[in-house]
Design a protein that fits this description.
The chain is built from eleven helices and eight strands.
Length: about 260
């Protein structure tokens, strides 16, 4: 948003109203929190300029954020109430992951996503990790426009066939979340639509055999498509679809390009 939304925290010093919308009091992603701060320690003649350098204000801000985190943790324990809260303010939490590195892990605990196994229900990353198959070392996710689109995506065919759960990240801001949230609980987050998706239990000899057998075809496809693709390789992520366009591990995903356009 180009226009910063005003926050709802009013600042008083010894019960004298000083200002509302004091940006130094609370981070932008918590602008939905309403409240009053009454300080005994700030000078009455404080100006906006001196506020920015004020150490007391930094302590107040830190405590406000801490309190907000505690209240949200408490609320998250009630599934129905959290669902209502999350529908309204999930974008704020995700913005927080992008902006607030100090509380990133706490905010990550509060995220909820649909997956390839939950239907209409959403689960936390903690629940996902608890349900991971034995030997699974990464958290698989796919980004896209809608639940319908990602659930039918060829990128996750083989994962679903193997019984591996895939998180559906269908909110545009999720693309920014995963740029900051590289791992969770020591498990790397792996984008299924990018290169680097390997299955350890695959028969390596069989794959090498296939690569050799189809080398000519891959070379021909690259020659025909030229600069439109970087390379053509035999992969293991497909089950029914003949081929799929994969983006490089460090580049934008196709979904991110769509958002930026």
């Amino acid at each position: 948003e180009n226009k910063k939304q005003k926050n709802n925290i009013k600042l008083y010093v010894r019960r004298v109203f000083i200002m509302d919308n004091c940006e130094e009091l609370i981070p932008e992603y918590l602008n939905f929190v309403k409240g009053v701060v009454d300080s005994e320690d700030l000078p009455l003649n404080i100006s906006r300029e001196t506020l920015q350098q004020n150490k007391i204000l930094k302590v107040i801000r830190k405590n406000l954020v801490k309190k907000c985190m505690e209240l949200m943790d408490e609320l998250a324990e009630d599934k129905d109430n959290w669902k209502k809260f999350y529908e309204q303010f999930s974008k704020n939490l995700k913005l927080g992951i992008h902006e607030d590195s100090t509380n990133r892990n706490k905010l990550a605990d509060l995220l909820r996503y649909n997956t390839s196994k939950t239907g209409d229900d959403q689960i936390s990353l903690k629940e996902y990790v608890a349900r991971m198959k034995e030997g699974q070392k990464e958290i698989f996710f796919i980004t896209g426009e809608s639940k319908q689109a990602v659930s039918a995506s060829p990128f996750i065919e083989n994962l679903k066939k193997r019984g591996l759960e895939v998180l559906y990240l269908i909110d545009p801001i999720d693309e920014y979340v995963i740029q900051q949230l590289k791992d969770y609980d020591d498990k790397k987050l792996r984008n299924c639509s990018k290169e680097g998706l390997d299955f350890e239990e695959e028969d390596k000899a069989k794959i090498e055999e296939q690569k050799a057998a189809y080398e000519g075809l891959c070379t021909l496809i690259k020659e025909v498509l030229g600069d439109k693709i970087e390379k053509c390789v035999i992969g293991t992520r497909l089950n029914e679809s003949p081929c799929v366009l994969v983006t490089s591990e460090w580049g934008w995903s196709a979904n991110m390009e769509r958002i930026m356009k």
